[in-house]
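Sat 14:20. Reprocessing the chain from the morning session after the first attempt stalled halfway. Input below, unchanged.
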Amino acid sequence: MTGRLFALALLLAGACSRGSAFTVRPEPPGPAPAPGPVSFRALHVADFGDDTRQQAAVAAAMAAAARAAPVDLVLHPGDNIYECGVNPSLPGAEACAFAPDQNTVPPGTALPADPSFQKLFEKPLDGVLRDGKPVPVLLTLGNHDVAASGGCAGGGEARIIARRKACLQVAHRSPRWSMPGRHWVEDRGPVRFIGIDSNLLKRDYGDFSFDDEVAFVAGAAAPCKEKLCFIVAHHPSFSAGEHRADATPQYLERVSRIEAAAGPIAGWLAGHEHQLEQLRAPAGYDVIISGNGSRARPEERFSSVSAPGARLLFASTSPGFGILEVGAGGSWSYRFIDDQGRPVQCCASVSRGPCKPVTCPP
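Finished this time. Tokens:
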């Protein structure tokens, strides 16, 4: 579909405004299936790491969601600390080194304490609790986290600075920060999350190889024919926001290689676009973007999608986050929640099928 026809389709479908947010729903929601028991619940937010009023409002809404129903995990795919990631020039930062796997950092390395972890990311999540304890947060790297050019150069060779920034974030540990590696696998009951370093979708960097990322995904996805699996990555495979310009032939070729390695995934959970979006990838899985944690792009109008065959199901400039719930038999659902705690879009999947837009529960 051309950009002009796509924009016309959105107009005919009824683009609407909710408060100051611009929202499009090309397909009307259907009736919601009868709710079943939930075995796992996660909050999904990205691009959260800046101390803005928006961040405070989103954090308060996340805390309210955690009080309303038990939350097992927070997924944060990237842009963890704005503007340029952690400080690579702190005394002792140069001691951070990846293990031979080029992915993990050996435990016990003495590293400098960067106050930005606490100020820009961990402290704002103080209210997200379960039984009075912090809900664990699982992160991946975003482009700002390894930025090493322009104002983020850090006074050294870009290759070295980007690698050091990645290392410092993988090495950091707290009750609200867990990054087991640049890529990782997390099994939670009936669901597997496969976190990847999606900076490599655009280009290799820091002496890290995209070929290694593909090999990792191929191994991590072995159970995905039987188990519900989600890719967790900062960069979306497809989008309808301004980063659709990322979708160069090389980017799309690399996306296709991850898709082929992963096999039958249920969804790709991302950020990078500072909006809330749901798309259906040409391969049939759901692309769910929750990247409006601390910085909004209210001017976005979702005029086209990033590649032929991808289909936009919902998009909004509303600040907010998402709630992923997994039930029995491969069923799962997702709710986009705005910064006031109101559901703005919901979808439901039955028996590992697509997550179809449904009417949100009251």
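The longest helix spans residues 53-68.
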